[in-house]
């Protein structure tokens, strides 16, 4: 077999099998953000399956812990003041919170691909929001951005 034929075959295989490049997204954990005090920013984020999301601390007072994931979806529990990075493969809605600031409505929504579990997420969001002392409509506003 001539070498050039082999090279073309390898190249063709590489092009066909190469996965789409997974993107990396960043969410900041803020004392003061565009939506007010104690927020994740962006608090609603849409990504593609396989993308990575990093939660970046801006101080020691925040964390990110998942509250709801789609079936077989990953969950996470970031330590206080620590960066946590998650790769999200399963399609659906992910809800997460900052533990010390749940009562202030410090929560967020990530949509991965199709919002397959939207009704479960809406139900969970009602339970979460009932525990907010302020910013009670924040989470439902975030969920309204789901497409
Ligand atoms: Cu916080």
UniProtKB/TrEMBL annotation:
Keywords: Copper, Electron transport, Metal-binding, Periplasm, Signal, Transport. InterPro entries: Amicyanin/Pseudoazurin, BlueCu_1, BlueCu_1_BS, Copper_blue_Plastocyanin, Cupredoxin, Pseudoazurin. It is found in: Periplasm. Residues 28-112 form the Blue (type 1) copper domain. Gene3D superfamilies: Cupredoxins - blue copper proteins (2.60.40.420). CDD domains: Pseudoazurin (cd04218). One of its GO terms (molecular function) is electron transfer activity. It comes from Microbulbifer rhizosphaerae. Cu cation binds at residues 62, 98, 101, 106. This is Pseudoazurin. Pfam families: Copper-bind. It comes from the Bacteria. Residues 1-22 form the signal peptide. Binds 1 copper ion per subunit. One of its GO terms (cellular component) is periplasmic space. Its cofactor is Cu cation.
